[in-house]
Amino acid sequence: MSPTKSYSVEKRITRSVARIILNSKSDQKSSIFIEIDNKLNNDVNDNRRKKMKKKEKVVPAANVFNSELLSGVKDNDAKSSSPSSPSCLSSISDHSRSVVTSSAASFSNTSPVRSNILSNISNTYNLHYNGKNDDVEEEHGNNKKQEKDDDDKRYEETYSIAVGPITWGKTKLGGDMLFMEESIYLFQSKSDKLMKKLWRCQRRDKKCRAVVYTDSTSASYLGNNGIDHNHPTDLLLVKKHHLINDLKRKVEDLTVNVPAAVDQGIANLGLDNEAMVNFPLPKAVVRTIYRHRANMFPPLPNDQTFEIPKQFSQTKRRESIIIYDGYKKKYDGRLLLFSTNELLQQLCETELILVDGTFASAPIGFEQLVIIMGNINGEGVPLVWALTSNRKQQTYDKIWSEIINWSLKKESRMKVKRFILDFEAAQRNSIERHFVGAEITGCWFHFCQCLYRNIGQLGLIPSYKDDAAIRTWLRSFMALPLVDNDILPYAIEYLQRHIPTGSDQCCEFLRYFESQWLLSVPRQYWHVGNLIPRSNNWIEGYNNRIGNRFGNRPNIWLFLYRLLIEEQIIEQRVQQLVFGKIQTNGSALAPENDTISRSISNLNKKYIDGDLDIEKYLKACTFLIGNADVGSANANKMVSSTAATVCPTTTPPKKKKPAAKT
């Protein structure tokens, strides 16, 4: 910057500073302004005269403001610099002096200009270069010293780093968190060279610089940076973080009830009265845990046109569990088939397949969950799951065609010889279409269940309970599936001719039986004879299992989440059964089945040999059904325990030995 421009800048800035003085309350403000202006103008004029002598050029006229200002003081230059002026200016208040200096410093960042202006003003008004007089500077220094002393006193108390067992958690943003002896540390950095991780104290608000080190692989404690904590332990905060992280891990199992888990977790903390007041409310913790659980899954779909993320379609072995996913009008919506290559291979190898549908465990948006189970070494194991939107034959046709197509691609022929179903016509017709020659039998359990239901609808429960003749006649219909196939026509004819007298309801029941089980459902579908197993109780037991685990009508994400876990358990069970590591248990063929088979064989032989007539033969078969406790809840409604008692669990009564002769 040229000297002229530099002086011009100084002049403008100093005038601006002088205006601030003019606005002040000082009585000598005019004298101050004139003195500053004269000093700068004198310097500028001297510089201009030197420049004119060298270049012989006319000096430009001063601006109007300077002319007006200097016109009244040109003859008083000596006065403006006389000793009277400083005495006049010395009356400026400390505040005005500070304003002059600080204002001048704020008008320019150019080092030479700023230095000249501050020097001029400081020399003229006896002000310090930093804009403070001696008293202000001393006071400022005392304040700084006091603040430093307060800080030193604040950090005099230190708390050593306690070493103990390490547990882990997550922050709100998903960062790693370390708990050790009632202290919390957050992940700071990782040193691959030193094979360790650095964890800083969580208390940023306290400016705590304590850092601990852990091994990168074993996560064991290695040491610290030698700096202790500058704050005491906040035990309540540590308990809160422990509780939140424990609950987050627990509620990843979607069957866990969040409010109940939160209540239990807070109760287990054993808080005292003071901690109870300061601890977060349970509903606040519940909201936090619900947000964590919600972040685990996508938003719930409003219809069936949703995409299934990989996290819900891949098993632990990175294999897709979905073997078919289609949306067609003939299916009334979406059809989903779930299985794996290993489970489908076992389905191809089995000779007995059981099929049943459940509605309670089907997710919202689907009508039913179809379970296809196979017999592996004497135990029923679920091998395929299907979510359907209706119960039409076209839907079942697609299920079986997909399974057959898979077996053809794998060059694995299906070896099934027998199916056990409920009495759904659409399912039965579909199986007959795809598996020509396979034997299809209905479930004896479902057969008896249907009869019991009609008994209740006809109001026969009181008679069934109190009248032995009616009870034996009704139970004989339930025993018909066990009767030998050659004897079955004679047994039906006997029951038709021997209706209990005086009971119109029994006549109604006979008409129902003839219409439903002789015309609509041919006898070959419900007659089981000496076949083992006679019912699909395997599937009924499995329905109870998934009902407890999946819940009633779960959402689709919960269903898929639990299904992936279920598939893993089933895979393990299959491997143990195939390699003979486990023996069949309660879910396998019950020993009573063998007893019933032997009893049926003995009864058939006695009937053929003439030892039993048809009446005694049927009555003996009723003993194989079991005891039904009916009528205890409502005289016209079947209690829930009635159907469960249909299972063959009892043996025929043993004949009493003749009394010993005396």
From TrEMBL:
Sorted UniProt keywords: Metal-binding, Zinc, Zinc-finger
Compositionally biased region (Low complexity): 80-93
FLYWCH-type domain boundaries: 171-231
Domain MULE transposase: 353-449
Keyword Metal-binding: yes
Keyword Acyltransferase: no
Composition bias type Basic and acidic residues, residue spans: 131-154
PANTHER family (alphabetical): MULE TRANSPOSASE DOMAIN-CONTAINING PROTEIN (PTHR47160:SF10), PUTATIVE-RELATED (PTHR47160)
Protein known as: MULE transposase domain-containing protein
